[in-house]
Amino acid sequence: MSDPLATPLTAMLGCRLPVIQTAMGWVAEPVLVAATVEAGGFGFLGAAVMSPVEAGAKIAEVRRRTARPFGVNFHMFQPGAAELVDIVIANREQVRAVSFGRGPDAKMIARFRDAGICCVPTVGALKHARKMAELGVDMLVVQGGEGGGHTGSVATTVLLPQVLDTVDLPVVAAGGFADGRGLAAALAWGAAGIAMGTRFLMTRESPVPALVKQAYLGAGTDDILVTDQVDGMPQRMIRNAALARIDGRGPIGSWMAALSAGFATKRATGASWPELLKMAQGMRSHGGLSLSQAMRAAAAPALIQRAVVGGDAQGGLMATGQVAGRIEDLPSVAELLEVIERDARARIALLTAAPSRQRKLA
Ligand SMILES: Cc1cc2nc3c(=O)[nH]c(=O)nc-3n(C[C@H](O)[C@H](O)[C@H](O)COP(=O)(O)O)c2cc1C
Predict the structure, then answer these.
(1) How many A from CA of 197 to the centre of ligand 1?
(2) 288 backbone φψ class: left, alpha, beta (φ>0; ψ -120 to 50)
(3) CA-CA-CA-CA torsion sign (293, 295, 301, 307)
(4) Following CA atoms 57, 95, 281, 272 in sequence, which dihedral angle do they give, to the nearest 10 degrees?
(5) Which one of 132, 171, 215, 267 is least enclosed by Cβ atoms within 10 Å?
(6) Residue identifier of the C-alpha nearest atom 15 of ligand 1
(7) How far, in Å, CA of 37 to CA of 14, rounded?
């Protein structure tokens, strides 16, 4: 019998398990990415918050830690995006895929394809899935509203079959996955695997400071909410003091926040003011945001950095998927993937067993 965990995802990305560790700014760092690919999954380096020089150094670090293929995440509006794309292509013998939300055009996608690099964007709505398929991407990650970071409003259980019925591409399920049960369910839907952010954030190799990992562990599903007050786009966060402050501010407060966020992003990325404005304008035209929202959007990652790098669980923002509300441990990546594989195989075997045996095992 063929291996149920060998899918178009494993074939395309060159990994053993159909499990993707998604990009997360300041979290999907070389140690996490290397641990994921070494344990059989496929990891994306979170380069959307990095300068080209930093991204080049971190790609080199992943390559020092592992010889296995991995991916890089970026977006076209970040400072130095064109240079970053050149760096990714120069590393094509090991960078097997790129992921992005706000995306490159058909020309850029063709450039990656010519270099043998798969384009695997994340989409959160059916119309975006259609658009990406038309642009010629290789595979789609479909993220339901349960997912972490910026997120849509349609739940995975509705969006995933909708996209599967619409596009003729391998589709990977994201948003709310954490275990082998979820992997088996995604495969049953017809997906090529699962992609997880929050579950990988809550592992030993994730660089998030211990105090903040404890805040993620302590959050119940009721402590996790969606707000558009951070940058004008719906984003899932753990309720804390920083989020309460942001939710309570008026228009002047929003502008002050946009300016101070701009300063913070300048410091973090080394971008000039013209570059920062270009980034904000890009987001504005792409997402239909006001300039104040776009400035905050360009700079919001700095507020997340305060928590996930600085360790400030009250003053920083903790982006998360809803699934953090049911995660209660911090395994190593190898332990996590081992349990996911074992449980998924057991579930699939159970579902395909004769009915009398199913009753006995259930
Ligand atoms: C802390 C955090 C940071 C994130 N940063 C990024 C990012 O830089 N780029 C990106 O494309 N997605 C980002 N995301 C979204 C994830 O890559 C992924 O799509 C999402 O977490 C999947 O949902 P899950 O958390 O339920 O697994 C982030 C998510 C979290 C929780």
Answers:
(1) 5
(2) left
(3) negative
(4) 10
(5) 267
(6) 149
(7) 10
Measured from the CB, is residue 156 less than 6 Å from ligand 1?
no
Closest C-alpha to ligand 1, atom 4: 24
The Å distance, Cα 360 to ligand 1 centre, comes to 39
Residue 27 Cβ inside 6 Å of ligand 1? The answer reads yes
Q: What letter represents residue 292's amino acid?
A: S
Tell how far the Cα of 15 is from the centroid of ligand 1, in angstroms.
21
Q: 148 CA distance to ligand 1 centroid (A)?
A: 5
Q: What is the structure's pLDDT at 62? A: 98
Distance (Å, whole) CA 75 – CA 123: 13
**Residue 350 token pair:** 């159970």
- Phi, psi for residue 117 in degrees, rounded to 5: -105, 125
Q: Using CA atoms, how far apart are residues 324 and 147, in angstroms rounded to an integer?
A: 10
First CA to last CA across the chain, in angstroms? 23
Residues 7-51 pLDDT 10s:
999 999 999 999 999 999 999 999 999 999 999 999 999 999 999
Q: pLDDT tens, 220-237?
A: 999 999 998 888 889 999
Helix, strand, coil percent values for the chain (each to nearest 5): 50, 10, 35
- Gap from CA of 320 to ligand 1 centroid (Å): 7
- pLDDT per residue as tens digits for the range 261-311: 677 667 666 777 777 777 666 665 555 666 666 666 666 777 889 999 999
> Which amino acid would we find at residue 339?
V
The identity of residue 199, as a single letter, is R
Backbone φ and ψ for 140, nearest 5 degrees, come out as -120, 140
Q: What does the alpha-carbon distance between residue 5 and residue 341 come to, in Å, rounded to a whole number?
A: 8
| CB neighbours of residue 89 within 10 Å | 16
Q: How far is CA 132 from CA 126, 211, 265, 269, 318, in A?
A: 10, 39, 29, 28, 29
At 143 the pLDDT is 97
Query: DSSP H helical segments within the chain, as ranges?
Result: 8-13, 30-38, 52-65, 81-90, 106-114, 126-135, 156-166, 180-189, 198-201, 210-218, 241-247, 251-269, 273-287, 291-308, 333-352, 355-361
121 lines ligand 1 (CB under 6 A): no
Q: Which residues contact 359 (CB under 8 A, 6 or more apart)?
A: none
